[in-house]
What we know:
This protein has helices at residues 11-14, 29-44, 72-85, 87-91, 94-114, 168-195; strands at 52-57, 63-68, 116-123, 129-138, 145-151, 159-164. It is of the alpha+beta class. The protein has a two-stranded antiparallel ribbon. The protein has a two-stranded antiparallel sheet with strand order 3-4. A two-stranded antiparallel ribbon has the order 5-6. Strand 5 (145-151) and strand 6 form a beta hairpin.
Amino acid sequence: MSDDDYVEPNEELLDEEDAEYSKKSEYSKPMVIQTQVMRCNELRSKEMNEGKTIRTFDKTGNYKIIDVPDTRQPYIGSVIALKNNLSPEVYRDKKIQEEIEKINNKIKELFEKYKYRELVLKNNKDRTYRLEYSGNEYLPKKGAVLTNNINKIYGKPAEENRVEGLWDSKVSAYWDAMVFLYDDLFSIINLLIDKNEYFKEKSGW
């Protein structure tokens, strides 16, 4: 860049005190938050149905796998989005932080309680077979085919015994519990919104 191309910086634009959104800006955070709160209300007002994986054959005999989405997860995702939009406000409120941290700890406990620890078949040097923990831990979808044992048939190599829907009851219990935890989180966030008079005529935000 030549000296002729240099433009003197505008000190007013660099002033930290002016580094907030203008009141005339098209971006309205209260409107964004209001829209997201309404979405949370809409999703929570619907029946909470569990997702699943369906394995079937079409009319021509082709094998098909159909994933049915879990309607509980969009609600949970909408509450997470609302919380993320309010991150600065949460950061400034230590009491709200403490309440959210309690919920986060319960969420971690739920995962530890219901997670699936993946097993894989290993061929040992003495030509015996056993299942070993792969190190992967996750919550499967309902209807997922998972390994739980070894099939041993005389004269044939050992195979993993895989069962469809092995973890279904635990998956259902996990997401049911998650909905209630995110209900609590949604309530806490609404308290934060009310505390800061977000939707009143004279907003403190």
